[in-house]
Predict the 3D structure of the following.
Amino acid sequence: MKRYVRVAVLGAVAIALFAQAPKGWKMRVDRSTSASDPDGSGGISFVTSGAGFHATNPQAAVYWNPANTAAGAYTLKGTFTLMKPSGHTNYYGLIFGGSDLEGPQQKYLYFVVAQNGTWLIKRRDGDASTDTVAPKTPSDAVKKPDGSGKSTNALEVRVGADKIDFAVNGQVVHSMPKNGLKTDGIYGIRINHLLEVQVDGLSVSK
């Protein structure tokens, strides 16, 4: 996953870009600094669509509602429909354990999938730091785009007392000890640049 830098979402332009956002939701944009992998043109759109959300991302972004938090043992779920493939591999999925998401000490974990059938788990720790928790890994559980160009993947993060299971379409693709991972906090969505994704069923259960 490419490295990005934070760009503050401020002023009239940002209000126009995010005017249709669901009530209470916030957005943090991560613009590409790679000349070989530039962002797309135009503004980000994140809107209510049916019972879920629809994100069109020329730039990468994290979306969250500060009221959406989880702690202790819980299962976080979300179903992600990629509307069309991007020109190269880009990841999208769940964030959890978030804190200071608008500030320089932003922290969160993310569990994401891509159109090439791989999944990835990373940790954001501050504006310029990301650590790989589990590397890009292919799995038959991750659905690739079909003949229409779409793919739908249901992601789950199952946080237990001592371990975390990560599942795609009901199949556990990775399990790991909970040691050292901050799982209490805000949950939400991360979608990389050059993607259009429908998100349904974002929820937490005990």
Observations:
- The two ends are 31 Å apart (CA to CA).
